[in-house]
Amino acid sequence: MTSDDSYPILHAEGVTKRYGARTALEDCNLTIPRGRVIGLVGPNGAGKSTLLQLACGLVTPSEGTLRVLGETPAANAAHLAKVGFVAQDTPVYANFSVGDHLKMGARLNPTWDQGLAERRIAQVGLNYKQKAGRLSGGQRAQLALTLAAAKRPELLMFDEPAAALDPLARDGFLRNLVEFVTELNASAILSSRLLGDVERVCNYLIVLCASRVQVAGDVPDLLNTHYRIVAPRGELDHPPAGMEVIRAQHTDRWTTAVVRGDGSRPATWTIKPIHLEGLVLAYMTRAMGVAGQPLMTSSGEVGR
Question: How confident is the model over 21-39, as a mean pLDDT?
Fold first, then answer.
């Protein structure tokens, strides 16, 4: 598939989504270039599922404008064919066999690639006659992934698809996700609370917390413009021009901070590179207003 690079895969301006009195997503502004595998990271209730549902046209914004692949989401059948979506719990039809799912995919999708679907089903060892309700979690995930990819979409979107899988099944799912993105020359958005998964397969990051986008960008650029600084207490109370303090923790003598920017660095400061986990936690902690409270489990899962 040849992609048109003249428009981003997703462009949002002031997008807000409310459900009654509850605001699920607020003032979202994003422009995501094509050719990226995007990690959408945040705690439960941050608005990740809402953003994906908006992007695939399941719901519409309360305010603002959203374009996906240059058009309003789900604008027409042709646009629907460009987007593959795997929702939470990798839903499939329990009473349908694997073969029934492929027949349904071929009937519903004008760009369906039967050869790709059959090859991938064989590769992961699924039985055409097996009912989906009798498959393991990993097998259901592989089936849902195959159905989404066999549409030959330009954009694949995944809402926590591997969170409930055991490590071996998750490893297989992520490997196949990357293979599909490469084979289809597609972009992908992976919503996940598992930073290890995001770090492994994603080259673009969006941190969503408290219903707002906290930071977004290419992972190498984010890591190159953020640092961990240890400075004598008080010296970061008024950071130099061009430097933003994202999160700071204090002892009687020292301040340890995550900062963004290229401001001046006195000799009394110790500068260290930051890892993706530390960057994500810094922005989420600032957004939650609970400095020092853990937002991630020991397994690397973003928590409440």
Answer: 95
Report how far residue 111's alpha carbon sits from residue 105's, in angstroms, rounded to the nearest whole number: 10
**Average pLDDT rounded to a whole number, residues 226-251:** 93
DSSP, res 237: S
Query: Could you list the residue range(s) of the whole structural domain that residue 159 is in?
Result: 10-219
Query: Which tokens is 258 given?
Result: 């995550």
Claim to verify: residue 130 and residue 273 sit in the same structural domain: no
Tokens of 105: 């995919």
Whether 44 has a pLDDT exceeding 90, the answer reads no
Instruction: Judge whether 94 lies within some domain.
Output: yes
Q: Two tokens at 110?
A: 């004008």
- Is the full-model pTM beyond 0.85? yes
Q: Does pLDDT of 303 surpass 60?
A: no
pLDDT of residue 194: 84
Distance CA 75, CA 104 (A): 22
Query: How far apart, in Å, are the Cα atoms of 170 and each of 102, 104, 129, 141, 175?
Result: 22, 26, 24, 9, 9
Strands (E), 210-282: 212-218, 226-232, 243-250, 254-261, 270-273
Rounded to whole angstroms, the Cα distance separating 162 from 192 reads 8
User: What's the pLDDT score for residue 20?
Assistant: 94
Same domain, 186 and 152: yes
Say whether both 205 and 102 belong to one domain. Answer: yes
User: CA geometry: angle at 41 spanning 183 and 51, to 5°?
Assistant: 80
Enumerate residues 6+ apart whose C-beta is below 8 A from 51. 25, 28, 40, 191, 208
Could you give the angle at the alpha carbon of 149 between the alpha carbons of 146 and 151, nearest 5°? 115
- Cβ pair 14, 65 in contact under 8 A: yes
H/E stretch holding 227:
strand 226-232
Residues 93 and 190 reside in one and the same domain = yes
Identity (one letter) of the amino acid at 253?
R
**pLDDT value at residue 2:** 41
The pLDDT value given to residue 289? 80
Q: Both ends of the chain: CA-CA distance in Å?
A: 40
